[in-house]
# Entry
Amino acid sequence: MKLLLFSDVHGDLDACRELVDRSSEADVVVGAGDFCQMRQNLQAPLDVLSAITTPTVLVPGNAETEDEIAGQLSAIGWPEAHVLHGTGVLIDGQPFFGIGGGIPVTPFGPWSYDFSEEEARRLLADCPDGAVLVSHSPPKNAVDRDSKGQSLGSVAVREAVEATAPLLTVCGHIHGSWGHTATIGPTSVFNAGPDGAIWNLPGADET
# Structure
């Protein structure tokens, strides 16, 4: 199964159009959150991305909520898109499980869609073994370093990766680690970023 992975387009419509153009290369498209900026103007990037006809998995970032994405998709119509947050979907026999938001709670204030580690543990409780885990926030100490070298990832996400050994964990959120890959046990962890990358399961990425 070939995946097109991305995150953090933050309203960049040119980046969204490029992802649409590349989507035919993949069996599944995965968007790991932050489609807009600070809860504003979510419709425009989703309008562009909705031209993707490949099965697509989306999780909310901290820049938009699950309900906001679902509301926009209901309005524009994008039947190929599955919005996951504490939930999963089976695509061509492969389980995908998603969790969105900033984990742990960010310093950005009330606009940011954030969750505590304990809330994240509850949302991750049903993640099956061997899934593709899509988490806006990276696991602690894996592709979670900001431009100053600080580790900002989630302990709860790391615990879920260690417990369920996903085939792949896709994340974003920490811009300083875009495009970087790490491993936790047998699991590759990829911080996708907005440019998009093709990843073959269970092999290595091809950018």
